[in-house]
Specification:
This protein has 167 residues and is mainly α. It has helices at 5-16, 18-28, 32-49, 59-78, 96-112, 116-126, 131-138, 142-162. The protein is globular.
């Protein structure tokens, strides 16, 4: 059976932006099994709502919005707030690449401790979206994005400093 053209376009766009899903599930799901479930749910929701995508924004902006909404819904439905094994993280290393990996893992663990709405803001910031793009994706004003982002960054800096890292 031949694929419909819109399926081909959707799959091509999904494949070119698949990193959005990968990074977002790292923010909202801690275990590998939960990450796989959430990624599958995001792909399903993207496909279900693809017919409503009218191209008035970039595909990636629309994808962020659908995936963020899916992540928030998933989080609420599963009612999970995982306890993260912070004490198991070894922060000393002679190998610089391991140290970078450790810092990245610590960052994800600290993000997991943020309220779910703040996770969306910091995720979009880390993705490199502008204030306007973040506001459009989140459905809030640019001023609100700036305020939230400043508070989140201050909170993360404080937490990082407790583990001996400075910005």
């Amino acid at each position: 059976m031949a694929q419909l053209p819109n399926e081909e376009v959707f799959l091509r766009q999904l494949n070119s932006h698949r990193g959005i899903i990968y990074r977002l599930v790292r923010v909202y799901a801690y275990s590998a099994a939960d990450q796989a479930d959430l990624a599958q749910e995001m792909a399903l929701q993207l496909w279900k709502s693809y017919a409503s995508f009218q191209g008035q924004s970039q595909f990636s902006t629309w994808m962020y919005r659908v995936c963020l909404n899916t992540a928030l819904t998933y989080y609420k439905v599963t009612q999970r707030n995982p306890t993260l094994p912070m004490e198991e993280l070894s922060l000393t290393s002679d190998n610089e690449s391991e140290s970078k990996e450790e810092r990245l893992e610590l960052l994800f663990q600290l993000i997991h401790q943020l309220p779910v709405s703040d996770r969306a803001v910091i995720f979009l910031y880390l993705e490199g979206l502008s204030g306007r793009e973040m506001a459009n994706s989140l459905g809030i004003s640019e001023g609100n994005v700036r305020v939230k982002l400043t508070r989140i960054k201050d909170k993360l800096k404080d937490q990082f400093s407790k583990y001996g890292y400075e910005f």
